[in-house]
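Schema walk-through. Below, the input block comes first and the output block second. Nothing else is stored per chain. Lengths vary across the set, and this one has 456 residues.
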Amino acid sequence: MSALDLSIRGQATAIAAGEAGAAELLEATLARIEERNPAINAVVATFPEHSRAMLAAAPQGPLHGVPLVIKDEWPLPWRAQRFGSAQLLAPTAPGESGPYLALRDAGAVIVGVGNMHELGSGSTGNVSVYGPARNPWDTSRCPGGSSSGPAAATAARLVAGAVGADGLGSVRFPAAYCGLTGLKPTFGRAAMAGHHMAAVTALIVSGPLCADAADCRLLGAALFGEELAAGDAGGLRIGVVHGAVAEDVAPEVRSACDAAVEELRVQTGGTLHEIELPDLAAATLAAILTINAESLEGVTPEQLNDLDPAVSPINRGLAKYRMLLPAAASVQAARVRTLMRRRLAALFEQVDVIAWPTAPAVAPPLDVPMVELPSGTTTADQANVRGAALANLTGIPAISLPVGLSSEGLPIALQLQAAWGRDELLLDAAEALESANGRRWVESLPPVARAEPVES
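--- output ---
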């Protein structure tokens, strides 16, 4: 097997053992990006000389020599973030962002910048100043957003892993649509310095997008700046919730997720607990209000009236709409956050994890991102946020895991959420589920990744 097709930990191990050359792997990765990326538009910038310089200076860390992609939400010393947009309302400049420093210090090599949904404002990835990223499982489908490029690049095996950001599900949605494992860390635990909203956000976190949980553990440890020790998920108490978030989902999604929960229960010798989570819809609305209010930091009416015409009509309108949000709405959203944090604190005394589908339907078409649910036809954005916003609002960790393929050959994903600071437990549970299904889904490859490999 080419070193290009190894996992993050496989590449790191091969380089450390002298079985693969880091310089050769970097050049092969650049060649694979050139070969495969045109079909999916996942990587919007490469910078070979900077990548080579990064490798030349790389310390002998746990990710030494491993090429990775980083989302267009993070500045690099040689490139400012564009946030997938023709214009940003907040000033940006090249710089040493927290994720960059974390990867550098771990010895990794940033080989490219990943595409993203314009201004981070969608769960589909079908709008970007660079053009939409495409799903490696079906290039006519959405790859998920807003970390669309990092997910598509990893799923297509341009790289073994990538760094995204999650403000309302933006790591978990692309992980779900692209058949990856994506971790949304506990708020404040992963590197955030250099993000243009770092000083004001109460929701956004950086997070890893990888093929499996062990790679998420390794890349997540670099972003956290601490070891994420493996533990035992034995006796796992799994909470299942009734209602729209678990039941108003496509039949194939519900069936695959129910089966995965049962596999996890058996594998861990765990138990299922039916739980109630009142006011989930209010929590979703509170999270939406919060992130919209956060994005207004420093914005003036004059800026909004002078937006670049290349910014999409939806985002031009949304930016102006945000100015109409009353301050009282933010106050109420904060009260809902407090309420939901208290409820979750009590709930996690009864269960270890909460399980429901990451996305209620598989990846929709790029040109018409609508989904069919038992309740009717709706936009993917409107349907997706119901299951993602709680973790961002309350700061708890969450992980998306591949658990099947639909009849159309598109990935289906299960989401697990745990108490504040229990990111390691989610990784333990994810690894248990991988064992339960024989790693069938984490080792499934999309058509783009089954192309003839570039030799390293």
